Amino acid sequence: MIARNDGWPWLITRDAATYILGVKNLFDHAAASEIQGRLDRLRPNAAAQWGRMTVAQAMAHCALAFDMAHGDLRPPRKLIGRLLGPIIKPLALGDDKPMRRNSPTVDHIEVTDSRGLDSEREKLRTAMKRFAKAGPAGCTTHPHPFFGRMTPDEWAVLMYKHVDHHLRQFGA
Known about the structure:
By secondary structure, the protein is mainly α. It has helices spanning 29-40, 55-70, 79-93, 117-134, 152-169; strands at 2-3, 9-10. It has a single domain (2-169), classed as Four Helix Bundle (Hemerythrin (Met), subunit A), CATH 1.20.120. It has a two-stranded antiparallel sheet. Helix 1 packs parallel to helix 5 and helix 2 packs antiparallel against helix 5 (152-169). The protein starts with a strand and ends with a helix.
């Protein structure tokens, strides 16, 4: 493991992290640092550019997605995912195109109650640090409810794209 002075444990260098033709992912120090900086720019009154969640709910939702990546939350597969997941997964994860607005979410990580931004942002930071520290060995082998079985590298790309999606939702 490579220790860095920013408090984040990094497992691999930027060059080694670009497994899918250079796609950004959260095993990549530069990509994770970018996300950290963007988290700092979020404000409690930030208006959503799309969707129904508040900024605090979106951060809680993202932290729950990391619980899914670690295997702490194991939602069942959906029929639509069993049918379309294998087709859509390489399209969704194979390049740096951002996730589409109003993309469907996994029911188990939908957040509808009132939350505070500062506490939810800190929970997300903690979840991201845990993900980085655990590295590929920390990713679940439980299938994603839509995409099915995923490699650790695919989880790292999905987690980057997911957090990026919600940061863009609130202009960060």
